[in-house]
Amino acid sequence: MPHRRNALVEKGVLKGFIYDLKTAAQYGVESTGNASRSLFNPPEPSFTNLVIQPGDTPLKDMIARMNEGIIVEDLLGIGQGNIISGAFSNPLALAFKVEKGEIVGRVKDLSIGGNIYELLKDVAAVSQEAQWVSSTFYAPYVLIPEMNVAGKS
């Protein structure tokens, strides 16, 4: 089954889903050609390249707007959240502290958590800049005004 572009969300509106041959048959729709498998498991719906379109705000302007915050570059254990409820809690692998619109250094021993579905309802800005993450996701920076952060003092 050939891969093709599948627009899943456009302007905040859900437009479609991804299907492999099995799930397409279960739902009575055409496969979107999205499946992968590991060594000992059957194929299952999966993204090959998930692209989130960049926004309008330069990253430097997003940072300048932050009185206090963190820039998350990498998480540990991504994918460990609850897909159904949206709950997640992940330690940060690489993050930077921002104070009064300036990056002041790297942070260690922090975790972020919350509900991704609720957090995405309150996005303050999406950056013009985007990058490949884990060679599968192409995503811009997203400014979220408030998030739960836990760490050692």
Proportion in β-strands: 35-45%
Largest sheet: 5 strands, antiparallel
> What is the first-to-last residue Cα distance?
52 Å
In DSSP terms (H or I, runs of 4 or more residues), the helix count works out at 3
Strands, count: 12
Looking at the structure, what is the overall shape? Answer: globular
Low-confidence region ranges:
none
The average pLDDT value, as a whole number, equals: 91
Number of domains as seen in the coordinates: 2
What is the alpha-carbon Rg in Å? 18 Å
Structural class computed from helices and strand pairing: mainly beta
What percentage of residues falls in helices of 4 or more residues? 10-25%
H/E series: EEHEEEHEEEEHEEE
What does this structure look like?
The chain is mainly beta and about 150 residues long. It folds into two domains: about 10-50, no CATH class; about 60-130, no CATH class. About 10% of the residues lie in helices and about 40% in strands. It has three helices and twelve strands. Strands 6, 7, 8, 9 and 12 form a five-stranded antiparallel β-sheet that branches. A hairpin with a 7-residue loop joins β3 and β4. The protein is globular, with a radius of gyration of 18 Å.
How are the SSEs ordered, and which strands pair?
Layout (H helix, E strand, L loop, with lengths): L8 E2 L2 E2 L6 H7 L7 E2 L7 E2 L4 E2 L7 H7 L2 E8 L11 E13 L2 E6 L2 E6 H4 L5 E9 L3 E7 L4 E4 L2
Parallel strand pairs: 5-11
Antiparallel strand pairs: 1-2, 3-4, 6-7, 7-8, 7-9, 9-12, 10-11
Key structural traits:
single chain; three-stranded mixed beta sheet; five-stranded antiparallel beta sheet; 153 residues; globular; 2 domains; mainly beta
